[in-house]
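User: Can you help me understand a structure? I only have the sequence.
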Amino acid sequence: MQRLAKMAAGFGRLAQQQTRSMGIYMVSAPPVVQNAAKERTALEEFAKFSAAALPKFIQAAQVSGCGELELLIAPSGIVPVLTFLRDHTAAQYKCLIDITAIDVLSRKNRFEVIYNLLSVTNNSRVRVKTYTDELTPIESAVPVFSGANWFEREVWDLYGVYFQNHPDLRRILTDYGFEGHPFRKDFPLSGYVEVRYDEEKRRVVAEPLELAQEFRKFELNSPWNQVQAGGSKTDV
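Assistant: Let's start by predicting it. Here is the structure, written out as tokens:
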């Protein structure tokens, strides 16, 4: 019993120490905010430095609301800008995290290709954005980051953005013989073909899409009278 009492007292003291440490951490929150402000200022200075170092390729530089650097570059500056961000001693963005894209039909250059880089040394991230259309190819980033190989294949497969000088540009997610690029805004939601398993051929076959019924328009308005919608109200 005495041993259990000592253990309980020890746990109580440990809980008090943890509570105190949490209180001290909460009190020291303003310095963290100050450090965040300093980091944002440093990113803004580096954005200005990058734009001055590569004025031919960097068209705009900004720091987002979450404190991440964004560089908007010309399509011809993919390899030079990525090489600069990877090798410069003030940058050292040596990790390519991801390559993705978005499709905005209202733009002349509808596709925006985005490169997300990470600097482990400086604990910093940068987002590099460029643009293109359906027919204009952009330079592959594989010579700078070998990990861009499958990322660019994914963007080609889903959006149809062609990467010039890619060592093996082919589909990676959709099936062989797939028509179109499913992440484009003008791609139909139902697709063009449907697949099923054929018992006679003993394999999966692709056939033209046949919808059992036309798309229906659903009315979400309630047919019942509601007070909020102007219905009658009876006093009780």
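Now, to help you interpret it: The radius of gyration is 28 Å. The helical segments are 2-27, 29-53, 78-87, 148-159. Let me know which part you'd like to focus on.
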